[in-house]
Amino acid sequence: EAGVAQSPRYKIIEKRQSVAFWCNPISGHATLYWYQQILGQGPKLLIQFQNNGVVDDSQLPKDRFSAERLKGVDSTLKIQPAKLEDSAVYLCASSSLQGGGKLFFGSGTQLSVL
Amino acid sequence: GENVEQHPSTLSVQEGDSAVIKCTYSDSASNYFPWYKQELGKGPQLIIDIRSNVGEKKDQRIAVTLNKTAKHFSLHITETQPEDSAVYFCAAFLNNDMRFGAGTRLTVKP
Predict the structure, then answer these.
(1) Which of A44, B15, B94, B98 has the most beta carbons within 10 angstroms of its beta carbon?
(2) Is A85 helix (H, G, I), strand (E, B) or coil?
């Protein structure tokens, strides 16, 4: 079974530029999560989708971050414009509706904002 | 919302010794407690989990215990090996909301 796929693996941009990350969850997983992991900290939820609907985006900085999952499968997370404090690893995770909370993570995208 | 605290932040043990990592949570309604291992440059990988109706679960050298009354749970790794070196995260889950601890960096010295 293929795992959660993310791209790119690394991205370096200058502040005020825009960036986008892509995630393809495990086949059949209805729930998709985007987490931000700052160095030395645990993952923090940005947004959660169930199929193509948003379940929780309460911690998403909506003035600069946006995410979509138009067809209920893969998803993109965008930052525009980026700030220095956005430097982090962006992790995508997915779970099945029957999984009872069992999350499977991708390898993440490491973003450096200079 | 749920708050998860994890201790210690770093742990160094000799190969073959045991390692214990402890977490506390704030919301007594949380019902699922996974542990993740994260190696450098990789995403967190689920290594063991426990649900609130169980007090202990074991999988080879790894075990997790849960004390619902005290709202804390622990990861136990026995006979540690160098490949156990990684960052370990605990988490607590309630109503589609997964909250993570800050992580423990475990170093196993050969």
Answers:
(1) B98
(2) helix
Distance CA B53, CA B80 (A): 28
Interface residue B34 vs chain A (CB under 8 A):
yes
CB proximity under 8 Å: A 26-85 to B: 31, 33, 40-45, 48, 55-56
Going B52 to B73 to A92 to A15, the CA torsion angle's sign is: positive
- Where do runs of H (alpha helix) occur along chain A? none
Cα–Cα dist A21/A75, whole Å = 8
Does the CB of A25 have a partner CB in chain B at under 8 Å? Answer: no
All residues at 6 or more sequence positions from B80 whose CB lies less than 8 Å from its CB, including other chains: B13, B14, B15, B16, B17, B18, B19, B61, B106, B108
Write b or e for each residue in A45-82: b if 16 or more Cβ atoms lie within 10 A of its Cβ, otherwise e.
bbbbbbeeeeebbeebeeeebbbebeeebebebebeeb
Chain B positions touching A103 (Cβ under 8 A) are: 34, 46, 98
pLDDT of residue A101: 81
pLDDT tens across B46-69, in order?
A: 999 999 888 999 999 999 999 999
**Nearest CA-CA distance, residue B110 and chain A, Å:** 24
